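Q: Second attempt. The first request was missing the SMILES, so the protein and zinc ion are both included now.
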Amino acid sequence: MFSNTMNIRFDSHLHSDFSGDCDTPAAQMIERAIALGFDGLCFTEHEDPDAPPSECDFSIDFDRYFSRMSELREQYRGRLQIGVGMEFGIQPHLPETLARLSRKYPFDLIIASLHNLNGMDPYYPSYFEGRRERDCYEEFFRVQYETLKLCDPSSFDTLGHMDYIVRYGPNRNKYYSYESYADFIDPILRLLIENGKCLELNTGGLKYGLGEPNPCGDVFRRYRELGGELVTVGSDAHEPEYLGYRFDYAAELLQNLGFRYYTVFERRNARQVRM
Ligand SMILES: [Zn+2]
Ligand SMILES: [Zn+2]
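A: Got both inputs this time. The predicted holo structure:
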């Protein structure tokens, strides 16, 4: 039986004004997490080298980031666990950049996310112009798989919002399901499982009105069937009100599929937390 108490009290994907597309001071996110009764959160700021030109600068000032985070950790000591992470935008030519950053800085968590492919960002409608939506979605999954294969597994911890592209397609997830893209999704799931990497449940999809998280529930069903057990949970909040967004839904979905734990990272070490 599902209870109303929040079963997941750690948000492993959120942004602050250290990300180019976010104006929220980190302290506001922390205050919100405390108000919700959370145990912790992990900031995962955008680092997207070679992102296509846009109004946002998707690169982190790492020295300023780590120094501000250590002040905040001091200030909130004993009240909230504060993780310092990165959401790295993977691309086929960037595995070495990811590996170098993962060794250089003392991250708690590294999310590998595919945001850009072939020099374009599907966030913009131009990505879909003149092409079949299905071809675009297939390409996204194919490039994601090929790129992940190139990345050293020790350079990241979890795969961010695996079906991110369905947030932005002309018909969004109307014609999308796990089954209809199984041939493209299964290899990604198998790769994560073989390498002991987590699959992220990103509740941003619910915020975007998809009626599903990213990836959708059936992808988690399949992940479990294939033997996957490691799941991180994040809201992808850019504003305080979305921190921990629909974590009740996330917990219920995972529990119904037989997951009993979610994974939290500290200094890149995984800890299983009972839901
Ligand atoms: Zn992302
Ligand atoms: Zn994000």
